[in-house]
Design a protein that fits this description.
The chain is α/β, with parallel strands linked by helices and about 375 residues long. The protein has helices spanning about 20-30, 45-50, 60-65, 100-110, 130-150, 175-190, 205-210, 235-250, 270-275, 320-340, 355-360, 370-375; strands at about 1-5, 30-35, 55-60, 70, 90-95, 115, 160, 165, 170-175, 190-195, 210-215, 255, 280-285, 300-305, 310, 340, 345, 360-365, 365. It folds into two domains: about 1-120 and about 320-365, Rossmann fold (3-Layer(aba) Sandwich), CATH 3.40.50; about 140-320, NAD(P)-binding Rossmann-like Domain (Rossmann fold), CATH 3.40.50. The chain contains twelve helices and 19 strands. Mean pLDDT is about 95; it is low at about 380.
Length: about 375
């Protein structure tokens, strides 16, 4: 079975979907692995490392994809490359399927079995395949490093002969994987951290990291069976904003990491909340790629609103490409190993398996994912 790994072509992407160490694991299974030349350069891995691991380095991207039985990549495929895929092949990557329905339909039309890494179910058996969590964990770390770079003060408390420097106050909105890592990293840097999440169940996790938990009585909230926060009503959102405004005003850094699966990220920090923050403060919008949590945030830019810097930089995990590539590659390899037929040396798609059923988007020329089907057809484009 031929496994092909093309390099990422999205502007500014530094991560690689496969590392030499995991190529060696796939070769050991009996797979024929081909990688595109330059695959790992962004993360510091030359082609020679892949050759030493047992892969064949290919220059021709179209030929690489056209001959693949299984394609492993990080980002969604460019639409024009779907015609290069062999009908009947399996394609595994992030797909953003709820926002890329036309692309998904095109994959179905090509008779490609497409697996979306965003949809890997959050069950114990699939933890080692959970790429959303592995990348979010690193993004939470990078968010704090960025937050420490832009404000007009330092994070830790310092006692000096010239007096005591008080620690920075950091407010983290959203205590999922990224938010919890942001809390932990900010605490390691010496900041005083407060966090908030609509899910009361995460309060214990927040406190275990040494942060305070901001309690806001919103009535009935909670999380989905997959661990994501449920969408709030308009009334709950307004009550939440009023309570958070005071904490924002007291904070030197605000980090937002709240997303609702399959929907645009909610606005948490509004213009009037920014207006009460101190000049020199910083807001880092970790949800910017999902629409953003901060009013006035601009994707890919750092903007200044009355002295408050709003950081809207995307692909934060890509700012630490070596570990980001390492963990994502392991996520992919673990998925392949789970469904590898050792006797026949091939990846076997099992549509009725709990894991595959959750993340398989197209198969047999159709869109088969229940969540995506329920969301409705793709909207026509102009």
């Amino acid at each position: 079975m031929k496994i092909s790994v093309p390099k990422e072509v999205y502007p500014g992407e530094t991560r690689a979907p496969m590392t030499p160490e995991n190529v060696a694991r796939l070769v050991k299974l009996g797979a024929q692995v081909e990688v595109e030349a330059g695959l790992g350069l962004g993360s510091g891995r030359p082609d020679a490392d892949y050759t030493a691991a047992g892969a064949t380095v290919v220059q021709d991207r179209k030929a690489l994809l056209n001959s693949a039985d299984l394609v492993l990549r990080l980002r969604k495929p460019p639409a024009e490359e779907i015609e290069w895929l062999k009908p009947g092949c399996v394609h595994i990557s992030f797909l953003d399927p709820f926002n890329e329905k036309a692309l998904v339909q095109k994959l179905a039309g090509r008779n490609v079995s497409a697996v979306s890494m965003e949809l890997v179910p959050r069950i114990t058996r699939a933890q080692k395949m959970d790429a959303l969590s592995s990348q979010a964990n690193l993004a939470g770390y990078v968010a704090v490093i960025l937050a420490a770079h832009y404000p007009n003060k330092i994070f830790p408390m310092m006692t000096t002969a010239a007096g005591t420097i008080l620690p920075a106050r950091v407010f983290v909105l959203g205590a999922g994987v990224a938010g919890l890592q942001a809390i932990a990293t900010a605490k390691r840097l010496g900041a005083k951290v407060t966090a908030y999440d609509t899910r009361p169940v995460v309060e214990e996790q927040v406190r275990s990291l040494g942060a305070q938990f901001l309690k806001i009585d919103l009535g009935e909230t909670g999380q989905t069976k997959d661990g994501y926060a449920k969408a709030l009503t308009d009334g709950q959102i307004q009550k939440q904003r009023e309570a958070m405004k005071k904490t924002c005003a007291e904070s030197d850094v605000v980090i937002t990491a709240a997303q609702v699966f399959g929907r645009k990220a909610p606005i948490l920090v509004t213009a009037d909340m920014l207006a009460v923050m101190k000049p020199g403060s910083v807001v880092v919008d970790l949800a910017i790629e999902g629409g953003g949590n901060v009013e006035g945030a601009v994707f890919g830019q750092v903007v200044d609103k009355s002295g408050v810097k709003i950081v809207g930089l995307g692909n934060l995990a890509g700012r630490v490409p070596a570990p980001a590539s390492q963990v994502y590659s392991t996520n992919l390899t673990s998925l392949v190993e789970e469904f590898w037929d050792k006797e026949n040396k091939r990846f076997v798609l099992k549509p009725e398996d709990e894991i595959i059923k959750g993340c398989l988007v197209t198969h047999g020329g159709k869109i088969v994912n229940e969540k995506l089907v329920a969301a409705g057809p793709a909207r026509p484009t102009a």
